[in-house]
Amino acid sequence: MEPRAQAYAARIEDAHDPRMLGHQLVFAAFLLTQVLDGILTYMGVSIFGIAAEGNPILAWLMTSYGHEVALFGAKVVAAMCGVALYALAVDRLLAALTLVYIGAALVPWTLVLF
Predict the structure, then answer these.
(1) Which pTM value belongs to this model?
(2) Which domain holds residue 79?
(3) In angstroms, what is the C-alpha Rg of the chain?
(4) Would 12 be classed as within a structural domain?
(5) Could you tell me if residue 91 is inside a domain?
(6) Which of 14, 18, 36, 82 has the fewest beta carbons under 10 Å from its own?
(7) Is residue 38 a part of any domain in this protein?
């Protein structure tokens, strides 16, 4: 077997390693958090206006480009950063960012909206 084929086969076997489950769960939690933040932010901004957005950069982008475009762009950028951290296997940082999003975005929006 070629070295390239061996390396590919090793990656496939590693994907089923039980240690990879935690790595994948952290990444999935991060992406889910981004999706939920996007939905809740869209709901909040639709109900209360752009002034309800706590991130001044995102609020400026929403004012400049519309809240749908700005929010979608911000979530895509955040997700791509998460993909980069996942690819680099920086699980602790990805988990910490997930917790920050939960505490600083999901909980406040949930309390305001529901």
Answers:
(1) 0.82
(2) 19-113
(3) 18
(4) no
(5) yes
(6) 18
(7) yes
